[in-house]
Amino acid sequence: MVTPGQFQPTEVELQMLRILWELGPSPVREIHLRLNAAKGTNYSTTVKMLSVMLEKQLVRRDESDSPHVYRAAVTRDSAGKRLVKDLVDKVYDGAAMSLVMHALKNSKASPEEVAQVRLLLDQMEGK
Amino acid sequence: MVTPGQFQPTEVELQMLRILWELGPSPVREIHLRLNAAKGTNYSTTVKMLSVMLEKQLVRRDESDSPHVYRAAVTRDSAGKRLVKDLVDKVYDGAAMSLVMHALKNSKASPEEVAQVRLLLDQMEGK
DNA sequence: CGTGATTAGCGAAATGTTTCGCTAATTGTA
DNA sequence: TACAATTAGCGAAACATTTCGCTAATCACG
Predict the structure, then answer these.
(1) pLDDT value at position B57?
(2) B95 vs A21, B84, B85, CA distance in Å?
(3) Which residues of A touch B113 (CB under 8 A)?
(4) Closest CA to B111 of A126, A94, A114
(5) Does the CB of A63 fall within 7 Å of any strand D atom?
(6) DSSP assignment, residue B109?
């Protein structure tokens, strides 16, 4: 079985994924519009990046209709989960809580969100 | 004023920083021992990486005694803080709480740590 | 159909990172 | 001092990522 997302997305790849997560399945033109707005990228570059990402299985595409439609092959959650794990391992030496504290301090969370975190903490302790 | 840490550490640089964070100020030999154990790196490579990192101001060195002593120029916390911010921006589109939830789910936190997070949440709400 | 515009693809240049060979400088010790 | 071992540094190779020029294929429509 071919596991999608066995590659860590690079900087630009992540940028493209983010665009895809926001837009949903889109033709190159749409993706390019965003990428170009963000950093003045050439159209060829966008196409090429997508083909690279296709090889890495970070995106999929539907060739049935034209222009081809690209979609992210990994969800924001799964990519995020993996990146968080990497970050925790590489910087915090596995101590996820340090990262949690940092992230919390950096965030302006709504009461609802804070409540959600509390709930999760309850569950963790309850176990 | 020259701002250290204006460069994002790359993969290997992060690995070296982590070694320095663990060991504290150390001569190349010590650092190399760890790096080599981790991935069979050549001694020259370690020296070179350190010189690159010196230029990027990710590390500092004391040349007064020999062998030279290297130390991280950025703390684990500051590097982590920055990387977390990047991750939140790049993947979660600024929604730090999503990252927090992921990190929490991935962690096996002690009751003390959980309590600490609760405390932080209290403070955030109290504001 | 024929022509201009859009879409797709490829190879290679440009850029950035990691690696190491080779040489020079320094150190410890006989 | 002389010699071997260790430490330091440089330049370039090896490798990965990002960029784009150029060409081919496809499409829209007069």
Answers:
(1) 95
(2) 14, 11, 10
(3) 97
(4) A126
(5) no
(6) -
pLDDT, residue B94, reads 86
Q: Which residues contact residue A122 at a Cβ distance below 8 angstroms, ignoring those fewer than 6 apart?
A: none
CA distance A97 to B106: 10
**Checking phi first, is residue B85 left (phi over 0); if not, alpha (psi -120 to 50) or beta?**
alpha
Task: Out of A99, A107, A121, name the one closest to residue B80 (CB).
Answer: A99
A84, A99 contact by CB (below 8 A): yes
User: What single DSSP character describes residue A20?
Assistant: H
Q: Give the mutation candidate from A91, A105, A108 for the B interface (greatest B CB count, under 10 A).
A: A91
Cβ contact, residue pair A97, B109, below 8 Å: yes
Question: Å from A125 (CA) to C18 (C1')?
Answer: 44
Contact A64, A52 (CB under 8 A): no
Tens of pLDDT along B35-85?
A: 999 999 999 999 999 999 999 999 999 988 879 999 999 999 999 999 999
- Residues A52 and A73: beta-carbon distance below 8 Å: no
Q: Kind and range of the H or E element at B64?
A: none
